[in-house]
Amino acid sequence: MKILVVSDEENSYIWDYFDRSRFQDIDLMISCGDLKAEYLSFLVTMIKAPLFYVHGNHDERYKTNPPEGCINIDDKLVKYKGLRLLGLGGSYRYRDGDFQYTEHQMKRRINKMRPKLWINKGFDILVTHAPAYKLGDGDDICHMGFKCFVDLIHKYSPKYLLHGHQHLSYTRNSRIIEYMNTKIINGFGYYIFEF
């Protein structure tokens, strides 16, 4: 299955110079947050694949203007063609605002998912906005990752963790990090991979 991941910055290669032939074999699209709703609606219109998304810390506008034709998987475990995707959007709380959480609040969100995780025997892809702690995150509180995401990796060993939030232009972070049996992909801009 070929998956397109997008996050944080609308890419002119896709939006302004769209060429359908370059994306005709995409089976699934995943947004890791902080993109204009119009951009996600454009993607799902032009690329014949479903688009699942989680909220970024700047996605307050989705509350009144959600991306049309896209599926919100925040706080959900969804299945698509045999893949189990767990969505946990938002960032570490650094100010008052929507889609920002303390470590304790994020753990509570995960704990509410435990019955579904048990019934489904875990998940294959963890979709987040913020990275996991010390696995592609930043040094400041705004870009700090969640320790409970590391705990999820240890317990369920998903194939992938997809995140955004940490722009690749901010630091010398790598787009891809291998940690235990999980491949962590920073979806900044866009990235295509095969599951």
Concise description?
With 195 residues, the protein is α/β, with parallel strands linked by helices. The chain has helices at 12-15, 37-46, 103-119, 147-156; strands spanning 2-7, 28-31, 51-53, 71-72, 76-80, 83-88, 91-92, 100-101, 125-128, 160-163, 176-179, 182-186, 189-194.
If you had to describe this structure to a student in words, what would you say it looks like?
With 195 residues, this protein is of the alpha/beta class. Helices cover 21% and strands 27% of the residues. The protein has 4 helices and 13 strands. It has helices spanning 12-15, 37-46, 103-119, 147-156; strands at 2-7, 28-31, 51-53, 71-72, 76-80, 83-88, 91-92, 100-101, 125-128, 160-163, 176-179, 182-186, 189-194. The longest helix is centred in the middle third of the chain and has 17 residues, at 103-119. The model has no long low-confidence stretch (mean pLDDT 95).
